[in-house]
Design goal:
With about 375 residues, this protein is an alpha+beta fold. The protein has one domain: Ribonuclease Z/Hydroxyacylglutathione hydrolase-like (Metallo-beta-lactamase, Chain A, 4-Layer Sandwich). The chain is about 20% helix and about 20% strand. The chain is built from ten helices and 17 strands. The strands form four sheets. A six-stranded mixed sheet has the order 1-4-5-7-8-9, with no helix packed on it. The chain has a six-stranded mixed sheet with strand order 10-11-12-13-14-17, covered by helices on one side. Strands 3-2-6 form a three-stranded antiparallel sheet. The chain binds zinc ion (ZN).
Length: about 375
């Protein structure tokens, strides 16, 4: 990559954005599906499914990005999904559908204008039937051809269920050059959805061919400050190990302990990171010491639909978006942020930067690694 700067056209327009913890927990997921370099402590993991509520005030338009897992998944998911979950031993808990969470939080469902689906997987499409028919679905290029009408209407379909898509408009977004709303951000085709620079939908094929991410402007440039953004990565990555550390956001030699239960405690002890860099996959390289602080711990896994493309996405995320202190990365299943974020209906996420979420959350993913190594007697230096 030639340069690592995030170029987003200047704008004073923002959207109001809330992060929803959908109550979904997917437990006992094997890490091998999601990263190529296995590290101790990362055999299986348990993940949430984040969803975003986006409100564009000037047009009074409300969007959702993703819907998590439907509450009735165990009785209504595609048979192949049930078979796979059973075989792998994944356990899924869902307390509430997103529609119920919104209603409980005081949002009227008829006010939801559209749902952006990052991709067709069952842990992202949720249950659109719980929304009035006026809410349309926004999907990525090629989605309709690949995933509609779904099973059982198409007996050959191995993942999508038909009832998810029935009875509402499905708009396939186009990222064709010539549309003045289409540009390129961080190497990704970007659609300026409201035409004012507040919210971009990004074409990010790799995990699946029609995968979509999104970039919301959370605060605008003023008084010499730069705009801040939230990058909704969906399943562009599945673990922070695949995009941290990076050249633009290297691992310091000491960090606040990622294992403390409250990331906001001022008295957090710090730990030395050298035991972590010593187990980095590139540590034995001639410039290993440097690379271990500036290269992600892991590569993406072989289970991605397009592995090279998915790897390029993770690299762009690392250097251009996540490496920028004005961008908060939230991928769908980042369990390391559960203690850091405030979730809907508790306020919006727009002030994430002044609340310190980026800083405090950045290295939390190392907790499992640190705990495991500590269990093996490795000394992280302690101290303050
Ligand atoms: Zn997912």
């Amino acid at each position: 990559m030639a340069h690592h700067h995030l170029h987003v056209p200047k704008s004073l327009a923002t959207v109001s954005i809330s992060i929803i913890d959908t109550t979904v927990r997917m437990n006992n997921i094997p890490y091998k599906f999601f990263m190529d370099t296995p590290y101790p402590g990362y055999e299986t993991f348990s993940t949430p499914c984040y969803v975003f509520l986006i409100h564009h005030v000037p047009t009074n338009t409300r969007l959702l990005y993703d819907l998590g897992v439907r509450k009735d998944w165990a009785t209504n998911a595609h048979p192949n999904i049930l078979k796979t979950m059973n075989h792998v031993g994944v356990q899924i808990e869902v307390e509430k559908d997103v529609a119920q969470i919104l209603v409980d939080g005081g949002v009227k469902l008829q006010d939801i204008d559209a749902v952006v689906l990052s991709h067709h997987h069952f842990d992202h499409v949720g249950d659109p039937r719980t929304f009035p028919a006026n809410a349309k679905l926004l999907v990525g290029p090629g989605f309709k051809e690949r995933h509609l009408p779904g099973w059982p209407a198409n007996p050959e379909d191995d993942h999508s269920t038909s009832d998810t898509y029935e009875g509402r408009e499905i708009e396939e977004l186009s990222f064709e050059e010539g549309d003045e709303r289409v540009s390129e951000i961080g190497g990704f085709k970007a659609l300026d959805y409201f035409g004012d620079g507040s919210f971009y939908i990004l074409a990010t094929p790799g995990h699946t061919a029609s995968h979509l991410s999104a970039l919301a402007r959370t605060t605008c440039a003023k008084d010499g400050e730069e705009s801040s953004f939230i990058f909704m990565a969906g399943d562009l990555v599945h673990t922070c190990l695949c995009f941290r550390p990076s050249e633009t956001y290297p691992l310091p030699s000491t960090i606040a302990s990622p294992t403390t239960t409250d990331p906001f405690t001022a008295t957090n002890p710090s730990i030395q990171t050298s035991p972590l860099t010593h187990i980095h996959r590139l540590h034995t390289h001639p410039s290993g010491a440097h690379l271990a602080q500036t290269t992600p711990f892991s590569l993406v896994s072989a289970y991605e639909e397009d592995v090279p493309c998915s790897q390029a996405n993770a690299t762009a995320l690392a250097n251009i978006f996540d490496g920028n202190e004005n961008v908060l990365t939230v991928y769908a299943h980042d369990e390391s942020l559960l203690d850091v974020l405030d979730f809907f209906p508790k306020g919006t996420a727009n002030e994430w930067k002044s609340k310190g979420w980026g800083e405090r959350g950045h290295w939390r993913f190392l907790a499992e690694l640190v705990k495991r190594l500590e269990g093996e007697g490795v000394d992280f230096g302690g101290g303050r």
